[in-house]
Specification:
single chain; about 280 residues; mainly alpha; two-stranded parallel ribbon; about 75% helix
Length: about 280
């Protein structure tokens, strides 16, 4: 079992602890995560009204621009309160993400070897800003995406959108962009464990560029062509950066494999001395 951080690895180099202590540490870290999420949710509760005004502004813009009915509908007595609670919890998860990510890291890392800890820490350090950057990019994309989707409404039609469905759409958009920005980290991680080769990723670059360009054209945060490039360039940069790192890692792995084979062949060609035979 992983060793608690306070114990130190010198006193217990194998990083072992009793099951009861392991469960107690897990419970304490869960409690810390829950407290951080609750504090973040309380902050989200106070931010709910200005945030909700920003979320529904694209719908209000459609109503003003096209002169038709477009509004958010609360279809129950308690639905507005439920929406406030869900939005506050979602904001709490985002705001407290550094805390609960650290608690996960602190719980796992004592049981890892030095090299594994360095790799895991590097992945954590890269994943958090990439995910937050993807969420921020989705926030910029949201107004244009809403206006584009509502633009398919036939003439004479109206858009009375259920608040719960709209919130679900916004959350999925934010998470989708956050996960999309994590894709390079996932690709490099699969390459590190030997599941995916850099050449395999490089072969799909044409399809990747096409999909990213289509996404940028549909979800660009502005009507001008520069807004599309603001979205396309980061995604393509991260993709090709991950591809380059995977290719370098493949070369390094091939060199180490060739070196081990050469050492094995050299050892096999060396004759066994008479003393070694006598000892055997």
């Amino acid at each position: 079992m992983p060793l608690a951080l306070g114990r130190g690895r010198k006193a217990n180099p194998e990083g072992r602890m009793a099951l009861r202590e392991h469960l107690r540490e897990f419970r304490n870290r869960i409690i810390k995560c829950a407290i951080a999420i609750v504090v973040g949710a309380v902050a989200g509760f106070f931010l709910y009204n200005p945030l909700f005004s920003q979320l529904i502004q694209p719908i209000m813009n459609v109503a003003e621009r096209d002169g038709r009915l477009a509004s958010i509908n609360f279809d129950g007595v308690a639905s507005s309160f439920d929406l406030m609670v869900q939005t506050s919890l979602f904001l709490g998860l985002l705001v407290s993400s550094p805390v609960w990510l650290y608690q996960m890291w602190a719980f796992i890392t004592p049981g890892l070897k030095d090299k594994e800890r360095r790799i895991a820490l590097a992945f954590m350090a890269v994943s958090v800003p990439l995910f937050i950057g993807g969420v921020y990019m989705a926030w910029l994309v949201l107004p244009n995406a809403v206006q584009a989707l509502l633009g398919f409404t036939p003439e004479g039609g109206s858009n009375v959108i259920t608040a719960q469905l709209y919130l679900t759409f916004v959350m999925r958009l934010l998470l989708a962009f956050g996960i999309a920005f994590l894709l390079p980290v996932v690709l490099f991680g699969l390459n590190l464990v030997g599941v995916l080769k850099g050449r395999q990723i490089l072969k799909s670059w044409r399809v990747t560029v096409l999909l990213v360009c289509v996404l940028g054209a549909m979800a660009a945060p502005g009507p001008d062509i520069m807004s599309m490039f603001y979205l396309i360039v980061p995604l393509l940069f991260f993709f090709f950066l991950a591809t380059g790192l995977c290719l370098l890692n493949d070369k390094r792995r091939e060199r180490r494999s060739a070196k081990r084979e050469a050492e094995t062949e050299a050892a096999a060609d060396t004759a066994t001395s008479a003393d070694d035979l006598e000892n055997l």
